[in-house]
């Protein structure tokens, strides 16, 4: 009836006992076992509450087939009586008790949207096999093990949660972590604290006792351990700041955590300094005075585009970099007299700050302090910088900071990643389309058009990016305050700047005699008029007569809202939401008598549920003559639409104004209804053809549902 999914809420009764042997077993399948008694008892009722587009399931079950029913609704289980499980799930309508008893007011009825969806019956003769106790031995072993493990994990988590306030997490970063992470997981600062070893320690434990735990874990005797606090600097970097004092080491772990972080989170972050002697065995840490500065060193290799951590050193504030060059060359594996450049990595948010250090100035003069990072590299040979993309430390860090892997998708397949490119957030519009064109093997990058991604809907934005319409890649990837890594591309047949000067319209051409619709893409300069569109269309379509005249209509939800004047500019015409329809102007409309009227004719159905009219199908114009009866008009409509007699006899005809139908008799004079010529919104007064919509539902490229007796659609782009 409706050609759509519907949930049927009609009343449908079901019994507590179901006898399938009755009437000589006519409800049993031919191969059913007739030797057993096919008497079934209701065990459970699955209920669906809601409509076809959404709802909720719950169940009434009597686990042992006793008289006691239970309702299982998500995690809530309640006792229920048999009436709730049976009769209230039959569906149908429910009456509300009258508000004023004694008065003769008709009861208010409403449809029940909760009703039985599936029933489970158990055969009486088999119920002992089915309804039996389940012991632990009945559960498969792998499930028992899994359930036990889950219980234990749950218990452990509960315990940890209950005791969390008694413990502190201590995260200990070591030289090994820096070696492993820098140049692989991270490039800036020294370590990702999420990936270092963590200890869960009781807050009461003295720090000295904790050091014994560390000795056990890392195999480093207590006397060779020295711990440093980390500190967040004003420029948002995070560096080792100072060693713990002997007085602090006798305090409890909980007290130290409060000293170390003002943010008052539950963690204590430390750096473990271990000095190694000549034989690579731990030795006691050197004495640290105010004059000593702890520096960390990273080596950059331009040809390999590689950054790695090579170690740390104590230097004197009054010393100079020149004095440690031989040591740095040794750390890097270079010859002792290799020329090297040194830089300080100062910060990386929001921008990179990395400056060359004067080798002849003192460390103090260069404002170096504990926890600072020095990056160094071989001095560039003359001409060698041409072979490297990033010849020095600052350019490499800039690249790493701004690099962005972008997932490109074809706009035609917006769900599938097609290829990835590594780009820079600082790339401008031309850089990005050039790289895409290069990847696609396309000579002209201006034929690439890009569209940004909407992070909320996970779809392409409706409007593509204009030619050079954004400064940088970072602007293309931003959606409100969110950033994505997806861009959509399409390859155009003409360069984008040229296309932007044109207006593209999709026009559905309805052939005068053939039963078909052809969709054409018309592309004209923006200052063109509707007349130009029609002239262009005439060269592409098959006309019933070489001299036929065309018109362009705006059709929306099966009503005609406008005939476009030939002089109207096309720049502001929107074909996104409504269909632009082109058709030949019939001869009879060209020579209208002064008393003839051109009226709108639409198909409609009455939607009883919502008590309103629903239009469908293709609307059209019709000339009606002075004094013409409905019977005469019907003959012309039937001929125009080519509807068989049997079908047409079921149609009803009505005059509709603002959605209210007045049904017409064959003898009614149609023109009398359409007297007012100046009515605003002529589309709201029309001759309605009431009948069912037999058209197969089909999505239609010009964004409209199609009409009865759907015409085949062809698309020409």
UniProtKB/TrEMBL annotation:
SUPFAM superfamilies: Cysteine proteinases. Residues 1-124 form the USP domain. PROSITE patterns: USP_2, USP_3. Its EC number is 3.4.19.12. It catalyses: Thiol-dependent hydrolysis of ester, thioester, amide, peptide and isopeptide bonds formed by the C-terminal Gly of ubiquitin (a 76-residue protein attached to proteins as an intracellular targeting signal). One of its GO terms (biological process) is proteolysis. GO terms for cellular component: cytosol; nucleus. Belongs to the peptidase C19 family. This is ubiquitinyl hydrolase 1. It comes from Carya illinoinensis (Pecan).
């Amino acid at each position: 009836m409706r050609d759509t999914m519907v949930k049927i809420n009609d009343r449908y009764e079901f019994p507590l006992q179901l006898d399938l042997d009755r009437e000589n077993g006519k409800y049993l399948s031919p191969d059913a076992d007739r030797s057993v008694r096919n008497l079934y008892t209701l065990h459970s009722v699955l209920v669906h509450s809601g409509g076809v587009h959404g709802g909720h399931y719950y169940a009434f079950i009597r686990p042992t087939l006793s008289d006691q029913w239970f309702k299982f609704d998500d995690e809530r289980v309640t006792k229920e009586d048999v009436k709730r499980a049976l009769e209230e799930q039959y569906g149908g309508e429910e009456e509300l008790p009258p508000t004023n008893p004694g008065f003769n007011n008709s009861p208010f009825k409403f449809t029940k949207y909760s009703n039985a969806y599936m029933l489970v019956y158990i055969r009486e003769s088999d119920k002992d096999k089915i309804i039996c106790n389940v012991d632990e031995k009945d559960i498969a072993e792998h499930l028992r093990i899994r359930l036990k493990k889950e219980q234990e994990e749950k218990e452990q988590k509960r315990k940890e949660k209950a005791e969390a306030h008694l413990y502190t997490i201590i995260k200990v970063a070591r030289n090994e972590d820096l070696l492993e992470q820098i140049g692989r997981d991270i490039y800036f600062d020294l370590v990702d604290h999420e990936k270092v070893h963590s200890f869960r320690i009781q807050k009461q434990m003295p720090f000295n006792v904790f050091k014994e735990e560390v000795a056990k874990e890392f195999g480093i005797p207590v006397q060779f351990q020295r711990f440093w606090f980390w500190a967040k600097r004003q420029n948002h970097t995070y560096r080792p700041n100072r060693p713990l004092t002997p007085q602090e080491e006798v305090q409890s772990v909980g007290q130290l955590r409060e000293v170390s972080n003002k943010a008052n989170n539950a963690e204590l972050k430390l750096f473990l300094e271990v000095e190694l002697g000549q034989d690579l065995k731990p030795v006691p840490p050197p004495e640290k005075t105010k004059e000593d500065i702890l520096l960390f060193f990273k080596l950059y290799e331009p040809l390999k585009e590689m950054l790695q951590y090579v170690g740390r050193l104590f230097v004197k504030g009054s010393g100079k970099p020149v004095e440690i060059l031989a040591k740095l060359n040794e750390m890097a594996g270079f010859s002792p007299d290799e020329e090297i450049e040194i830089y300080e990595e100062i910060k990386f948010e929001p921008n990179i700050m990395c400056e060359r250090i004067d080798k002849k100035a003192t460390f103090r003069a260069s404002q170096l302090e504990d926890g600072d990072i020095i990056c160094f590299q071989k001095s560039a040979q003359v001409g060698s910088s041409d072979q490297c993309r990033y010849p020095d430390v600052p350019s490499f860090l800039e690249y790493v900071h701004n690099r962005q892997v972008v997932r490109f998708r074809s706009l035609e397949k917006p769900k599938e990643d097609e290829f990835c490119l590594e780009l820079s957030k600082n790339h401008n519009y031309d850089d990005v389309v050039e790289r895409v064109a290069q990847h696609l093997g396309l000579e002209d990058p201006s034929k690439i058009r890009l569209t940004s991604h909407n992070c909320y809907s996970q779809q392409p934005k409706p409007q593509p990016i204009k030619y050079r319409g954004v400064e940088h890649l970072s602007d293309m990837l931003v959606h409100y305050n969110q950033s994505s890594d997806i861009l959509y591309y399409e390859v155009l047949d003409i360069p984008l700047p040229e296309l932007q000067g044109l207006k593209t319209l999709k026009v559905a051409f309805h052939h005068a005699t053939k039963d078909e619709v052809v969709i054409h893409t018309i592309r004209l300069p923006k200052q063109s008029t509707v007349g130009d569109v029609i002239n262009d269309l005439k060269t592409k379509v098959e006309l019933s007569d070489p001299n036929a005249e065309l018109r362009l209509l705006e059709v929306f939800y099966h009503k005609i809202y406008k005939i476009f004047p030939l002089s109207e500019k096309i720049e502001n015409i929107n074909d996104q939401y409504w269909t632009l329809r082109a058709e030949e102007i019939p001869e009879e409309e060209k020579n209208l008598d002064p008393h003839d009227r051109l009226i709108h004719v639409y198909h409609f159905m009455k939607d009883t549920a919502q008590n309103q009219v629903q239009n469908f199908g293709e609307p059209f114009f019709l000339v009606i003559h002075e004094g013409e009866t409905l019977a005469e008009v019907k003959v012309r409509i039937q001929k125009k639409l080519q509807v068989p007699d049997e079908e047409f006899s079921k149609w009803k005809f009505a005059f509709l104004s603002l959605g209210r139908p007045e049904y017409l008799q064959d003898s009614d004079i149609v023109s009398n209804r359409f007297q007012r010529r100046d009515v605003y919104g002529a589309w709201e007064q029309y001759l309605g053809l009431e009948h069912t919509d037999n058209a197969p539902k089909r999505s239609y490229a010009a964004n409209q549902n199609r009409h009865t007796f759907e015409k085949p659609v062809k698309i020409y782009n």
